[in-house]
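ok so I'm stuck.
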Amino acid sequence: MKYIFLFISLIFLFSCDNQPPKDYYNEKSSNSVKIDTNSNKAINKAPKKVIKKNKLLTNQNVKQKLTDFGINNKEEKILIRTEFGDIKIRLYKNTPLHRANFLLLAKSNFFDSTIFYRVIRDFMIQGGNSDKNNMLQKMAKIGLYRVPPEINSKNIHKRGALAMAVQEQYYKDPTKINLSSSPYNFYIIQKGPLSDTYMDKIEIKYNITIPQSNRKIYRKIGGSPHLDNEYTVFGEVISGLSVVDKISKQITNGKNRPLKNIYLSVEVLD
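replied:
not stuck anymore, here's the structure
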């Protein structure tokens, strides 16, 4: 029981800071035969699906398995479909594990019927999970793991950036903070252009320095610089930012959950 509880707990621990495969797993049918001792006749039992444990992703094998998957699946563009329109995204080559992980989940149809469950206007929209009863089963068929961080100073949280959430950090002890990503929960930055005055305040509040090259980008198109170097950015929106804006404006409850479910699905393009 304790392992089930741990698994469920981990699922809901992943979020970004609240501040301003074709199936990869294999299933096979196992036709077992039982002998009726009275008639010596074989009785076929119903096929039973068995998930090969060596195909599941774990923290021990995740790097190798995602590397292998990425070599055989080279697509870089995906399409997130919603009732508000489509969001086209380019995945970065310099974050190969995150690219492979997202492709693996998309090709496994994992994201289909999941929702944008956390929406904060003038900040970001976050999705990849669901309240549906089959979510635990879908995750169990892929594995319990986290994606090693691939934080790159060139990949910043500009408007339209795609990044993966990490486990909430309740402490700032640098020896304990784990920047590995949730494999399932992603977010897209929505915030618009920033003024230098605003960025000055961000630097003081979060004790960070925003490089001038980044300031130029944030000044022109916007973003959330306080998240840089904390989460792995592994892609960006190349069309459909207006859809991101529409989703960000939906009415939410006190926990930033939209009052009406915003379903999504992910399609791999090329």
